[in-house]
Amino acid sequence: MALTPEPASGSPILAARGGPTAEPPGSLNASLNSSWASSTGPSSLEDQVATGTLGVVLLAMGTVGVVGNVYILVVLGRFPRASASLRVYVVSLALADLLYLLSVPFVVATYVSREWHFGDAGCRVLLSLDLLTMHASSFTLALLSGERCAAVLRPLDAARRPGRYRKALALGAWLLALLLALPMVLAVRLVPRGGKGVCLPAWGPRTHRAYLTLLFGTSMVGPGLAIGLLHARLARAYWRAQRASFPRARRLPAPRVLRLVLGIVLLFWACFLPFWTWQLLAQYRGAPPLPARGARLVNYLTTCLTYGNSCLNPFLYTLLTRHYRDFRRR
Questions:
Q1: Where is this gene product found (predicted)?
Q2: Which phi and psi (to 5°) does residue 200 adopt?
Q3: Is residue 159 classed exposed, middle or buried when 0-12, 13-18 and 19+ CB atoms within 10 A define those classes?
Q4: Short-list 60, 81, 85, 90, CA closest to 150
Q5: Beta strands in the chain, from DSSP E residues, in sequence order
């Protein structure tokens, strides 16, 4: 979820992560709050159909994603030695996806009823949970890329690393993600507006804009640069190994494992970069750059993209662990 400014008042309001952002006053489905906080008329048939379709799609994505991520956790729990160097990070990613997907029913219920039913605690938990899982995923992806880089450039050192070392890194990623989400937990509150409850942060629009800009840097820019540099080093190492054609190249992890890791990273960027672009445009422009109907369409698409990431990831995790096990057997 994210907080976006309500154009009518200039104060931030609650919106689903990748979901509806603030739209001009009088438009429908502006956000999880502004759609009922502003004075709007009854929903049109088109809006009802769009909202119902979005709800069905999100529930379907949530069901598939929850089953897939639970399957990954069960498999790795039953076979703890499978892909040992990747196991901790894959478990961390699957947990982050699972927690994020568990928010789908709450988002759909708010979309359909156009009212917040989950109280002040719901504002704090659901909003901060999205920020927590998003950062935990991006930090874990950086650690996963670093693990693959170490396996190529320093295979003996990587093999000697104990499991508790990787667990400590994964736990540190979650603690850092929690620290970045903590201001949202403390600032968000449920306040009455227009006869209904609205989730609002205690700080003003400028502070909120600065906070979202910081989160963009910590969730996308920073980890993205680190991952890009790591994969550039990997590409350089493989290029040199292929040119030299010396026996040590046979001991390098299979390139397809690295391609799958890169695929997971690119999927994360493809699903969340549109969300952040849309959110920051709304923050710095003060209003969506599109007409109301176009803005709603972009909101729906970015919503599906963010949840689609957690839905598709289990399939990539399955391929990643399976291919790595095959490599270890050979």
A1: Cell membrane
A2: -130, 140
A3: exposed
A4: 85
A5: 2-5, 12-15, 188-193, 196-201
Cα-based angle 60, 311, 57 (whole degrees, multiple of 5)? 25
Contact 171, 88 (CB under 8 A): no
Long-range CB contacts (< 8 A, 24+ apart) of 40-47?
43/114, 47/296
Cα–Cα separations (whole angstroms), residue 135 to 178, 215, 226: 8, 9, 14
Tell me the two tokens of residue 103. 């928010």
Which residues of the chain, if any, have pLDDT below 70?
1-44, 46-47, 79-85, 158-159, 241-257, 286-289, 320-330
CB 278 within 8 A of CB 23: no
Neighbours of 60 (CB within 10 A): 13
190 sits in the region (left: phi over 0; alpha: psi -120 to 50; else beta) called beta
Cα separation, 172 vs 175, in Å, equals: 5
Tokens of 38: 């502003």
Beta bridge partners of 73: none
Nearest to 272 by CA among 318, 223, 206, 239: 223
For the chain, give the mean pLDDT. 76
Domains of the chain: 48-187+213-329 (1.20.1070.10)
